[in-house]
Structure formats: structure tokens, C-alpha cells
């Protein structure tokens, strides 16, 4: 008799526990979800991420864009001053680099191969 009563109460307890869903255990950080890189980035990392979203490359981390080097499409050389020294590997297999000063203004030609280079102003992000 006592065993039957105990079994009945155990079955009831088991069925009522199944009916009520047990809430999943959550930690405080997981309530709002895991923060994204953009949400937790600070300082220089945040500046670089915002610039990358806008398509800019403020620290010249990406490969430079290639230009034809012609008068209509000169190589663009960024500079924070009005002149910059440029090294031109005139042909792909050359082992020597031709160095020359590039000044602000119109496009200039490499003294050896004739490729055009143009100085463009560049502002540092800080
Ligand atoms: Zn050259």
C-alpha cells in the first residue's frame, strides 16, 4: 500500500515537472548576446574599423592600388609634405631602383622609363 502511494506521487511529480518548462540558465553576459567586434573595439582599433567600413585606409595597411602610369592615369603617391622621394622599378625584372624627388603639382615622369607619378596630399589620422 505504501509502495503504491509512493509510486503514484512520484508519477505525479514527474508529469508536473515535464509540463512546466524549465527556464534555461543564462549568464549575465549572454542576456544581451555576445558583443560584436564593432561594439567592443576601442581606441585605434575602432578608428581603423570605422575607416575600413567607409572604404578608407588611413594607415596604408592594404596593398596600394595599381595605376597604369600613363599621363592620363599616373601613379598616385600620397605625401604629408610638398615632396617625396620615389623609387621606380622601371621593368619587372630590374634589380636596380631609380630614385627621384616627386614634387607637388603636375605629374612627373620617371627619368629612366617615363612612367608618370603624381603627388597627392595625405593627412595623417592623428
Ligand atoms: Zn621608372
TrEMBL record:
Q: Which InterPro entries match?
A: Cyt_c_oxidase_su5b, Cyt_c_oxidase_su5b_sf
Question: Tell me, what is one Gene Ontology molecular-function annotation carried by this entry?
Answer: metal ion binding
Where found? Mitochondrion inner membrane
UniProt cross-references to Gene3D superfamilies, sorted A to Z: Cytochrome c oxidase, subunit Vb
Which key words tag this protein in UniProt? Acetylation, Membrane, Metal-binding, Mitochondrion, Mitochondrion inner membrane, Transit peptide, Zinc
Q: Upper lineage ranks? A: Eukaryota, Metazoa, Chordata, Craniata, Vertebrata
Q: Does the keyword Transit peptide apply?
A: yes
One GO cellular component assignment for this chain's record is: respiratory chain complex IV
Primary location group: mitochondrion
Gene Ontology BP, a term: mitochondrial electron transport, cytochrome c to oxygen
User: N6-acetyllysine-modified residues are where?
Assistant: 65, 83, 118
| Keyword Transport listed | no
The record's section on PANTHER family has: CYTOCHROME C OXIDASE SUBUNIT 5B, MITOCHONDRIAL
Natural source organism: Salmo trutta (Brown trout)
UniProt-annotated binding residues for Zn(2+): 88, 90, 110, 113
Gene that encodes the chain: COX5B
Q: What is this protein called?
A: Cytochrome c oxidase subunit 5B, mitochondrial
